[in-house]
UniProtKB/TrEMBL annotation:
The keyword Transcription regulation appears for this protein: yes
Taxonomic lineage from the root: Bacteria, Pseudomonadati, Bdellovibrionota, Bdellovibrionia, Bdellovibrionales
Span of domain HTH lysR-type: 4-61
Protein name according to UniProt: LysR family transcriptional regulator
Organism of derivation: Bdellovibrio reynosensis
Pfam families hit by this protein: HTH_1, LysR_substrate
Record field: transmembrane: none
Alphabetical keyword list: Activator, DNA-binding, Transcription, Transcription regulation
Record-stated family: Belongs to the LysR transcriptional regulatory family.
Length: 290
């Protein structure tokens, strides 16, 4: 019985990814003759040619394409194994790593962390960032969950799953000087300055659609995905802020002018398929909601 030599597989993968033996040799700092020998030995074990030469370039054969798919999965699983096994504290507690978009309300993250602590003793780490950055970390198993204001399908990724955990109505808030706008709301918003979420946000597009349908023209004066910054700018009187109405949310320095009917901010919990699941992340995917 022949055993697969993972060094052979590693060198083959490097040659395929770098596009040739010369570039792989330079990256790995291994001589070209050594790489050529390792590749031939792997082909002998498999009984198939993994590359063919076309116009002085190495091109994967059908067998080579299949072998590369397996190699990528094998080394991905190896990375996952290392991350999962090393990812424990000295007290042997589970480490839950959560990624969150800047636009996710902080009290949502607080609720998620509190729910995690109820499930089992754990350490919770929270990383904020852009959707593409967080997704890369999720797929690399450096994050267990992402809290997002759009579902995984919009990220166009396979083996990534999303669950809606909240659908919150949106109201407009402003400092005391905008208090008179409660009357004749929402038409009273016409021509008024707004602190808005950025254009890549689903909520921003829903807001634009609402104002267009109502024939209301607003003046964007600032854009940010950070809801805390939106509130600070609105409190300072810079403009009005459309914010989700969270349960028990109290805006001490802001006046609620009115709800935007039919406009909601939906939040999603996103996870990626793993061979070894984080048990707390799996439970949260099953049972967490607001």
């Amino acid at each position: 019985m022949q055993w697969l030599n993972y060094h052979h597989l590693y060198y083959f993968r490097a040659i395929a990814n770098e596009g040739g033996i010369a570039k792989a040799s330079e990256k790995l700092r291994i001589g070209q003759p050594t790489l050529s020998t390792q590749l031939r030995q792997l082909e002998d074990i498999l009984g198939k040619s993994l590359f063919e030469r076309r116009h002085r370039k190495l091109v994967l054969t059908e067998a080579g394409k299949a072998a590369l798919d397996y190699a990528n999965e094998i080394f991905r699983l190896g990375d996952e194994m290392l991350e999962v096994i090393k990812d424990q504290t000295s007290q042997n507690q589970t480490h839950l790593q959560i990624g969150a978009l800047d636009g996710v309300p902080k009290n949502v993250l607080l609720s998620l962390a509190k729910e995690a602590y109820k499930i089992a003793p754990c350490t919770v780490s929270i990383l904020e960032g852009r959707g593409d950055e967080l997704l890369r970390e999720l797929r690399a198993h450096r994050l267990d969950l992402i809290v997002s204001n759009y579902p995984a399908q919009l990220m166009e990724e396979e083996k990534v799953y999303s669950k809606s955990v909240a659908k919150m109505p949106v109201a407009v808030y402003g400092s005391a000087k905008f208090g008179a706008l409660k009357k004749s709301f929402p038409q009273s918003l016409n021509g008024k300055p707004f602190v808005l979420p950025t254009l890549h946000s689903k909520l921003r597009h829903d807001l634009n659609h609402f104002f267009k349908l109502k024939g209301i023209h607003i003046e964007p004066v600032a854009e940010t995905q950070d809801t805390s910054l939106q509130k600070l700018l609105a409190e300072d009187g810079l403009g009005l802020a459309p914010l989700s109405e969270m349960k028990n949310l109290k805006e001490k320095n802001l006046i609620r002018l009115g709800r935007l009917e039919g406009v909601y901010e939906e939040l999603w919990l996103i996870s990626a398929q793993r061979k070894i699941e984080n048990p707390i992340a799996a439970k949260l995917m099953q049972q967490f909601s607001l």
